[in-house]
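thought: fold this chain, then report.
action: predict
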Amino acid sequence: MNVRRFFAMMPFAEEFDDVYMMMQFAGQDACDVARISFNRLDEVHSPGRISADLLAELESSEACVADLTGTNPNVMWELGYAMAIKKPTIVITQDISSLPFDIHDQRAICYRRSALNSTLRAPLAKALRATVSERLGASNLFQQASPAINAKPVRTGILDTKSVFISYSLRSGTPYFSELSEILMKFGFTVLTGFGDGAGSGEYVLRRIRHQVNDASMFISILTKEMQIRTSDGSYIWAPSVWALEERGMALALEKPVFLLVEEGLHGDFWRKTTPGRIHEIFNHKNFPDVAREICETVTERYVALIR
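observation:
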């Protein structure tokens, strides 16, 4: 019997240990189709190599299960990467209503902590069997797209247009986006985003954003202080929009040059660990005009170097 390796995307916290164990049980229950083995990042990564090991695990796994309970920012980054490389992904959560709007319309398994056997183990085993039986992809979100969307190939390293995808939060990043996009257009760039007619809303929003990112020659993420989350020691730290992290994961998967504009005070775990070696600038409200112009000059230099 073949062994199918699935990757589990979930928060690294003790309260999710029983959920992970139930995933393993569901994998055993689905063994009439194939033997399914789960891995999650804390089991495989080497010190200082979280990003490299994450990408290797995602790309080598045949499919993923993503627990979006609490919309953990790091899980959303992993989800964006998986979606960009068209990795079949099963979404689970404790609260359907809390799912980000871009995936709210997609099918998900909603489970209860008080009844993991009946609300998670059984439906997940069924979903795992279906995923394997359908050759690990027929039910993938991207493969459910219309033929026109699906037929468009991924182009990496081909600079067809002088364009930049800007990822930002509508709630906390709009003023910065407006200023940055105005400067970029003066530098001759076309600006693409995940909002408006290019992305739309509803069932195909993830697929449309993926193609917007793919069409861009460069990617800039404006990471602003979107929400405070509580850590294991009871303190609170600033986190960016899960939407921005999802899009950044897509950009990395599509091998786009990535540049980060990070608001002062944003916790480093949300950008240093997941995007090592990428060009980044720290900004605040006062220095943003200067930082924006500097990043535009850097993006222009990188674009010119790539097209030579």
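thought: worth noting. Residues 3-144 form a domain with the Rossmann fold fold (CATH 3.40.50.10140).
final: tokens above.
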